[in-house]
Each structure stands twice: as C-alpha cells, then as structure tokens.
C-alpha cells in the first residue's frame, strides 16, 4: 500500500475543507484534501434533491475573503439553490488552483495518533496511507444520513431515496410519491415536486413552523447596493450579530408593545421573509419565553389556516410543539396542500406500521400506494460522522469512547483532549449561526495556531540539534521531539462544555426534540451540540484564547 508523508491532511472538500486547504497551502505546508465524493461541494455535492436551497441569503452564503470575487461572481436570486452553490464552490476551487491538492473517491476509514512519531496514521478506502502531522476534519454538520428501518422496508418494489444522497437522473414526474419528514429538507422537496407528481403524501410526525423565504429574483439596484456595502456587511455579520444572517437581532420584548403593533411587526417579517429573521428580528424573547413563543406561533398558525383551504389538512399541518427548532422558511410550502393530489398524514395520529411491496401502511389500516418514497429524515448531526469512524487518539481511545459518557464534547468546537494535532471544523459545541462565517472563523483559528506552533518549533530546533551532537540521539529523533503538538486540556474542554450547557439552559430549543440536541436519533445521548451565544461572541472568545497565549491548550 502506498504511504504518503505530508504536513497536513484535510478530510472533506465542502465550504470548510476548501478554505482550510487553501489556508494551509498558502502557509507553505504540504497539504492534501480527500473526499469520498467525486468532486468538491460537501453537503452540496450529495444533497441534490429537488428544491435544495440555502436558507441564508445568497450574498452571505459564500466566502468573505475575496472582495473582488464577492463583487463580480454572478447571482440573481435572493436565496441560492444547490446547483448554483456547487458551481460556486467549483469556481473557487479552480480559481485558486486547489484541485491538484485534492484526492476524490477517497474515504477516510481510520485514523490513529502515533505518539512517538507525532503523526496521524490515516488509512483510506483507496489503500493509500497518509502519515500527517496535522489532521483537520471538515466532514460537515449534516452529512451522516439518518435512515429509519421500518418493518418490511425491503419489500417495497418502488424507488427509495434519501435526500442526503440524491442520485442524478431521477425523474419523478407523474409518479406517486411519499415524503417522510418535514424539516427544512422535506419542506423544500414538497414545495418543489408537488406540481409535477400525480400523488404526493407527506408523512409528518411533528409539523413545523415555516415562514416565507421571500425567494425571488433580485434587481440590479439591489445587487449594486450589496456590492457597495460588502465590507461593512461582513463586518456586521461576523462581529456585530448573533447569527450572521445579515440583519440586526433585536432585544425588544414581545409584550413591551401593544397587540396591534405586535401583529404589524410579525406581518412585516412575514412579508420580508426568512426563518431566522422572523424568530430573532421581531422580538428577542421568542426562543426563551413560552408566552412570547406562543404569541409568535399563534400568528403563524393563523397564517396556515388562512393559506390551506381544506380544514382537515390545515389541522394536521398545525404544529403542536414549541417554535424552538432551527427556524425554517419556504417558497410556497403550505400552498402545495391546496392541490387535490397532495395529502398529509399525521404520524402522531396514525404512525407507520410497515412497508409493503406497494407502499406504506399506517395504523388506521390505510395502505398508501406509492412509486417512490423520499426519506427527508435528516442526519445524525454534528458528531455522527466522527463516531462511525475509528478515530483513535492517545492510548488508543476513540472519539466514540471519549464521548460515551458526557455526550459530544470539545474545546471551542475545535479540539479534543488526547487527540493531538487534530482539529474539527464545525465540531460539537461550535457556534449556532450562519455556517460560512462560522467556518471562516474556525479555519482561520486552526490555521493561525498551526502557523504559530510551526514557528515556535523551528525556532527551537537549531539549539536542539546542537545539543544532539553531544548525545546518542539522531537528527531525526531530535527533529521529531521538537515537532509541535497542539492539544486542548481536559480542564478547558470541561469548562467549555459547562459554558455551552449554561448558555442553552434557558433556551426553549432545549425543550423541543430536534437534531440540535441529538434527539432525532433513536438511542443517541441527548447533549448540547452548539455554543448559543452567537458568532460575534464566539469570535471574541477565540481572540481571547490567542491573546492569552492560546490558553486552554497545552504549551507547544
């Protein structure tokens, strides 16, 4: 098997992996990025389902560090669809000549830290073994698919697709389609395909609150205004906001205004569009106060009843839980249920009993005959890809072992004790916000700490080599002993875990079953998976870590 020695290995070539590869290459390191896919894109390579769209406005769903590219690269709609996102990431990869440092169709199968060599030994699906000083995982938040195992599922003779691995060339026009799941993905799929299929059955366990996205073409004047303000837009998104979605979150309290004014504020946000905007630009207590949450949900429920003409369909689409999941938006979701051939099945009232060769049977005895079943059932989010792979740190401990008792923990969402020189982009307990600014923030921190460690090691090596002349140690042994080892302390991990726990303690998000706390996976330990203080606070924390001589990390 070929063995390749390099300075750094990046796993994944989505938003995070592309930028991390560029940063480390530009620092003069010999770096390779690998990906199980056949091209760049990460999430946007695999999620090619109809209607796949970012819920971040287009002008902020890209990299901020190339101002010329921000101003010149074309985009024409308020939100960007999957094909355009994939094309954009391919464009960046080609523009910066990164492809020659990438190896596709190459999956990481195991990684083990060798303490004496101060190297990660990484095996891959192609047989190539990498010996690398630094291992950076850019596997993504939402990449390990959650596929339910229903009784009789193998008996179904139709087609089955998970939205997270949508094959090319699928044609569902004129077919009878069942969609299981109604989170952001399910909402997008239903909105996109309803008009083209002969029958659509939406199987919903927990109806969700969705608000309009405001999707549509942008004017030349709109684009010109964005271009002129780009530096300020990104400064505000990164350093002056909670979530980095391009608006200023409010601290206004729901009941500080009259009911009439409150309705007007909700309506303005509804017309403007955007899930995060509706939840956090209207009032600042929707996610922490149940009464405020109920006021917002009552408004959305009235909108559902006003939109969906069939009262029984509308009843089934009314959410019963708190408005406390990742806020979602749509481009005409509720309107699809006014089509006669679009049905909704409440899995709370009539759960799925089994699959048959013809379709799906629910507990009321109804057999829903289908040609295609779409699983919009989400992902084993944040840590799922780490626990399925044998990643072994010091003394052979795996990440799965490390997280067995407390749930997924880290220091800063970036580093784990006893896993030296390993970094995670969007690891557990990273910031809950728009992903591109979070990714950039973490990639830049990782790159800077590696650069500083390399600088210190080079500074220390000459003296060590001189002293080696008077000992029996070889040059390679001395060089190895002086190579940098970057590792978070257990105390720092515990403190950060506690911070994240306390930040989420009062959040209504914690009282609602969702992937944000791992509760969408049967048997998975519920845990805090995000830092809820926002992107600007997170960036300040990282700056304080640097200013404190990388406090929380062992001396390197």
UniProtKB/TrEMBL annotation:
InterPro entries: FAD-binding_Monooxygenases, FAD/NAD-bd_sf, Flavin_mOase-like
A Pfam family the protein falls into: FMO-like
Keywords: FAD, Flavoprotein, Monooxygenase, NADP, Oxidoreductase
SUPFAM superfamilies xref list: FAD/NAD(P)-binding domain
GO molecular function terms listed in the Swiss-Prot or TrEMBL record: flavin adenine dinucleotide binding; N,N-dimethylaniline monooxygenase activity; NADP binding
Taxonomy, superkingdom: Eukaryota
PANTHER family: DUAL-FUNCTIONAL MONOOXYGENASE_METHYLTRANSFERASE PSOF, L-ORNITHINE N(5)-MONOOXYGENASE-RELATED
Protein's name according to its UniProt entry: Cyclohexanone monooxygenase
Organism from which the protein derives: Trematosphaeria pertusa
């Amino acid at each position: 098997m070929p063995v390749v020695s390099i300075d750094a290995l990046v796993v994944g070539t989505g938003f995070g992996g592309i930028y991390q590869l560029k940063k480390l290459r530009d620092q003069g390191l010999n770096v390779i990025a690998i990906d199980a896919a056949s091209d760049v894109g990460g999430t946007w390579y695999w999620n090619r389902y109809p209607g796949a769209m970012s819920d971040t406005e287009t002008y902020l769903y890209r990299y901020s560090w190339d101002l010329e590219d921000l101003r010149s690269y074309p985009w024409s709609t308020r939100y960007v669809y999957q094909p355009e996102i994939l094309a954009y990431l391919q464009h960046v990869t080609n523009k910066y000549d990164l492809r020659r440092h990438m190896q596709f169709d190459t999956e990481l199968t195991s990684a083990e830290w060798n303490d004496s060599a101060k190297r990660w030994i990484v095996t891959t699906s192609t047989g190539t073994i990498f010996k690398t000083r630094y291992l950076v995982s850019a596997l993504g938040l939402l990449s390990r698919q959650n596929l339910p195992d229903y009784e009789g599922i193998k008996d179904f003779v139709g087609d089955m697709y998970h939205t997270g691995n949508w094959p090319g060339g699928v044609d569902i026009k004129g077919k009878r389609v069942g969609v299981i799941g109604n989170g952001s993905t399910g909402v997008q799929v239903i909105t996109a395909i309803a008009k083209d299929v002969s029958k659509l059955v939406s199987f919903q366990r927990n109806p969700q609150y969705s608000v309009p996205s405001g999707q549509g073409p942008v004017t030349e004047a709109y684009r010109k205004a964005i271009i002129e303000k780009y530096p300020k837009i990104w400064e505000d998104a990164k350093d002056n906001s909670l979530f980095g979605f391009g608006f200023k979150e409010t601290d206004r309290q729901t009941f500080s205004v009259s009911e009439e004014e409150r309705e007007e504020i909700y309506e303005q946000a509804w017309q403007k569009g955007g899930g995060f905007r509706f939840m956090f630009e209207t009032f600042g207590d929707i996610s922490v106060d149940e009464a405020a949450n109920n006021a917002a949900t009552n408004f959305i429920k009235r909108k559902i009843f006003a939109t969906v003409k069939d009262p029984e369909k509308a009843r089934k689409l009314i959410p019963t839980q708190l408005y406390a999941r990742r806020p979602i938006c749509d481009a005409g979701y509720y309107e699809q249920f006014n089509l006669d051939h679009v049905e909704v099945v409440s899995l709370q009232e009539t759960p799925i009993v089994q699959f048959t060769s013809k379709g799906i049977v629910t507990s009321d005895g109804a057999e829903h005959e289908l040609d295609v079943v779409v699983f919009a059932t989400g992902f084993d989010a944040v840590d799922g890809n780490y626990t399925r792979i044998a990643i072994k740190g010091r003394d052979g401990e795996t990440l799965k072992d490390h997280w067995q008792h407390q749930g997924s923990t880290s220091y800063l969402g970036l580093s784990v004790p006893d896993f030296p020189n390993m970094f995670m982009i969007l690891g557990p307990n990273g910031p809950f916000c728009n992903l591109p600014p979070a990714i950039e923030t973490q990639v830049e921190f990782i790159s800077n700490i590696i650069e500083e460690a390399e600088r210190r090691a080079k500074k220390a090596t000459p003296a060590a080599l001189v002293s080696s002349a008077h000992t029996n140690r070889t040059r390679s042994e001395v060089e190895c002993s002086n190579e940098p080892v970057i590792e978070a302390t257990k105390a720092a991990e515990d403190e950060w875990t506690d911070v994240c726990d306390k930040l989420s303690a009062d959040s209504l998000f914690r009282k609602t079953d969702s992937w944000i706390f791992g509760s969408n996976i049967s048997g998975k330990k519920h845990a805090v998976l995000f830092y809820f203080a926002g992107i600007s606070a997170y960036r300040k924390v990282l700056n304080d870590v640097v200013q404190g001589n990388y406090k929380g990390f062992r001396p390197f």
